[in-house]
Amino acid sequence: MPVFTNEETKLFHLQTKNTSYIFQIIANGAAGQVYYGAKVPVKPSYSNLMTMEEHDCTNTLSEENTSFQLELIKQEYATQGKGDFREAAYVIQYPDGSRTSEFEYQGYQVEKGKKRLPGLPSSFDDEGTDATSLTVTFKDRLYDLTMNLHYTVFNDDDVIVRSTSFENKGDTVMIDRALSAQLDLPDDNYDLLQFSGTWARERHLYRNHLRPGTQSVASRRINSSHHENPAIILARPNTDNNQGEAFGFNLVYSGSFLDTVEVDQFNTTRVVTGIHPDDFSWQLEAGQSFQTPEAILSYTNAGMNALSQQMGHFYRDHLINPHFAKEDRPILINNWEATFMDFTEEKLMKIVTKAKETGIEMFVLDDGWFGHRDNDLTSLGDWFVDQKKFLNGVGGFASRVHKLGMKFGLWFEPEMISIDSKLYEDHPDWMIQTKGRLATPARHQFVLDMARQEVVDDIFNKMSAVIKDTKLDYIKWDMNRTITEAFTATLPANRQQEFAHRYILGVYQLYERLTQAFPSVLFESCASGGGRFDLGMMYYAPQAWCSDDTDAVERIYIQDGTSYGYIPSMWGAHVSAVPNDQVGRVTSLDTRAKVAYFGAFGYELDLNELSEEEQETVKEQVAFYKQQRHLFQHGTFYRIDSPDTATDNVYGWQVVNDDQSEAIAVRFQILNEPNPGYIRFYFTGLDPEKTYQVNDDEETYSGAELMNAGYFVARIMPRSASPKPLADFNATMFVVKAVD
Ligand code: GLA
Fold it and tell me: Which atom of ligand 1 is nearest to the CA of 376?
């Protein structure tokens, strides 16, 4: 039983395989956080950990109970107004305008399994065999308002899923802030790892030691954004990929979010995560309830590879659409960087035919197939085929692709509208705008009000017709601008701050309906690359286009950062042409493929423009990836920490299969070095007892030798080499197989 409760001490102890999460009801009737970390035995109480001492100059619970000082108390889900001045997890505004809450413990319920949240992406245990869920209920002292703290523990995963819901039976209140989870830790000796960047430079790792005050990552863009990602890690300063303590946090949400880490006056740390409270409030009338998105919390003392792996394992089993979660994804070719919008059916067929010859499995027709979209000024919202480009419709083109034995995918940008479109002619009011204000264009386009039911219905109908007509296998769902002039005609003036969340709920509804109606269509989410790379999307779309930047070097940084919070099957990675479209860099076809192998692999170029030799190489790459695809997409992923990777010039990644009989590692060296010394590559995650072959070496090696003593890496280029190869941006691959 992973959830232990003690009625008398009102203590709750959640145990996963290796961790304990403990909280207890405290004197004011709220929940106090006791401990989260490596597993400890179950006890009726931990009074030593809950000792309270009176400190000067702080507020107390009452005249009688002066050692109960909220400022010093670690809580589970804190509000403001009663003497805790740290970042609040929730704030309610009452009918008299006051914003001070007092919720008192009422009771709890333990249930087998984990139900999906209606209308929101969420974790699940559909069979009810893997999870135990705990709901702890609190009631407002003055109002008929209930607050539920939800927790779920999964048998096989060192993960705790948390969320909160409010149910109102009394006077209307406004929820001004309702984050998903809070965690108070007893000290501040942590580094914050965040994954930040911008368009074409998403999710670079930044690691900084905590300091007093608040440090946040956030998005106010109504998408999770290129700029910050909801995934964060708190790690002890000595924690690396192989050892040490780390807490991981991620949010199952795709809109504006806030992750705040606050170090207070007593050097304790509070983490809160959830919907960004700026531009959020929610009117809750009698009979209504509000459910926050879920937050994922995970702890390990075995380093950050273990943290990423345990979170990834959980995503695979309990978050990603089970239809695809463990399936091998097709190798695709996408025409975007090959043609942009300048194509004819015949030009595309040439790419398709060549792709078929090389063994590629799916053709994805990107932007430009609908309305009269020859450039980005027009036609978004008109999801019917451009007859000029496809005489027999896109259905006709799709059947030509299918006849060749290839799958067929299409690009949509469902949430968008162009002024030059039939949709705008018919429904100008469906566009998000604030009456009387200038509309702010981005990429010449505007956004549909997804909070309007008729908008969601209309897009659903149009997309469904195309899916049926083309017998579609895959959809790339793009979202290429952020929202400005936020406003919806569906809500009265005093409720406009619900818009941002309602927009996302509309997006989720459309995803839900399409994935239900067409369960075999694989969705890849995209937002100008990785602008909505989050767990909310992953619930529906098991993979996401990692970045518009397909340069192999930039992708090393992006995919390395991404790997802390997500697994390779989640990230789309393609080989594109050189000089690279985003940075002009020339890297070898070999390196481009070796970076893209780690992920849902594909190509994004016109194969006909490659030399015959290069086309042969592509064939070999495709054949190799097919053989190793399961390992690359679903193997256990490691970032290699070794003396060699201690600088930013060298990165190492490795995937290992479940029984440790197969592994592939790649060592990336960005710039070549003159006259290097002898270098060793240290494998990880192998079985020390097994004997392995590396590539086609005659000598064999024990796992212990490969991991502890290392493996010699030949220099990239002897000085005598002639002709000189492209020696920068090198990728050396090691295919490792157990031989006994
Ligand atoms: C975005 C995507 C690209 C491509 C274009 C099409 O930028 O990230 O991959 O689909 O839109 O307009």
Answer: 12
